Amino acid sequence: MLVIKRKKNEGLQIGEDITIKIVGISDNAVKIAIDAPKETIILRSELLEEVMDENKNALVGDLNSLNALKDYSK
Question: Would the keyword ATP-binding turn up in this protein's UniProt record (predicted)?
Answer without folding.
Answer: no
